[in-house]
Amino acid sequence: MLFINSRGYILSKILLENLYTPEINGVTIHTFEPGFKMDESHHHQAVEVISVLHGSSYMIINDQLIRMKKNECLIIFPNIDHRFFLGEKDSCRIMNIHFNTG
Question: pTM above the 0.85 mark?
Answer without folding.
Answer: no
